Known about the structure:
- The protein is built from 15 helices and 19 strands.
- It has helices at about 20-30, 45, 50-55, 75-80, 90-100, 105-110, 125-130, 130-140, 170-180, 215-225, 250-265, 290-295, 305-310, 330-340, 380-395; strands at about 5-10, 35-40, 85-90, 115-120, 145, 150-155, 160-165, 190-195, 200, 205, 230-235, 245-250, 270, 280, 300, 315-325, 345-350, 360-365, 375-380.
- Helix 5 (about 90-100) crosses helix 8 (about 130-140).
- The radius of gyration is 24 Å and the shape is elongated.
- The structure holds cytidine-5'-monophosphate.
- Cytidine-5'-monophosphate binds next to helix 13 and strand 16.
- Cytidine-5'-monophosphate binds near residues 271, 277, 306, 320 and 321.
Amino acid sequence: MTITGKRIVLAVTGSIAAYKAVELLRLLTRAGLEVRVIQTAASRKFIGEMSFQALSGHSVATELFDTSSQAVFNHIELATADLMIVAPATAGTIGKMAAGIADNLLLSTYLAMDGPVMVCPSMNNRMWNHAAVRENIETLSRRGVIVIEPGTGELACGATGAGRMAEPDQILKRIERLFGPGDLERVRVLVTAGGTREPIDAVRYITNRSSGRMGFALAEAAYERGADVTVIAANCDLARKDGIGYFDVETVPELETALRREFENCDVLLMAAAVSDYKVSDTRPTGKLERKEINDLQLIQTRDIVSSLQGNGNGKLKVGFSAEYGEDNRERARLKLEEKGLSMIIFNDISRDDIGFDSTRNEITIMIPGHEDIFVEKTSKRNCAERVLDQVVSLLH
Ligand code: C5P
């Protein structure tokens, strides 16, 4: 696939990671892309215009209203590009993008863009985790902006955590995928996400801490790679993406019904939902149980849904997830791989606070029969999803 000739606007904001934008620009031009650079005033304090001008072969656009006679840029013209990439994107620019504020050339260009927009955030880990930034990122993502999650590690400010701008080679890969036929083109992917709720009475239920983030990350990654994606969402309070089909369910039986119906028409099942293993034997659909009645509650096992679906034999891939408490329980995942007739299982340790359930990050081991285990060190759920899909693609071939 060639991306040669695509017109890109690379917008650089004021972060120490501006130096990575120079490297990104080098990769983009080397890949044959036609790049115009916008720099905010703050970004020029980190890296001067000359570096970007030399590598792009064009002068750098900085002013919204340029009165000089040679002015060749304006936001409307820039916004006709095939893609706009904001890298690095500071918390301030992300916030203004989400709010629709257009007080500089970058922001005006963003609002005028018709084509896709990518943002590559870069900031201190506490800023990245601040509720305001999280909400702004969700808003942009919901509106179709492609967010390239920052990596985790040592940050320029001395702190350690999430906030390092994604590496330029990763960003280039995402651009290639955006313009090319994805490696999951025409593949029908079904994802289950979230945690089921089994009612006890009219007001109480049994559930778990699954947020659905891993499943949603898988769905979004598969969609961007060209797949036809359907999500069965069990109690997921997360932003939805246009282009992906969602069915909301609450209980295990509801999830099972939706899954049996949709499974017929899928090529790959990614079973990321945390399905309750138990339900209450005599649910009280109306009213509230009294304290003494709760003592008499009986739990019965639910059916293991993924085991009961015909997988491998008919060419469908069944991918399971095994959330285990502690590294010592890793081998339980391998047993489930076999017992449930899965093509692949993803082990993750839920004893840690920093990864897994209800977190934006994960650390996973991908297990495939007859293959060496693949360990994915702590990273965003989106990056974990991409690694899982890499394996799905190679199994499909
Ligand atoms: O709960 P457990 O660790 O056994 O889950 C492993 C896999 O089996 C997961 O992919 C989960 O979605 C699936 N599962 C299921 N039906 C259940 C319990 C789990 O399909 N009742």
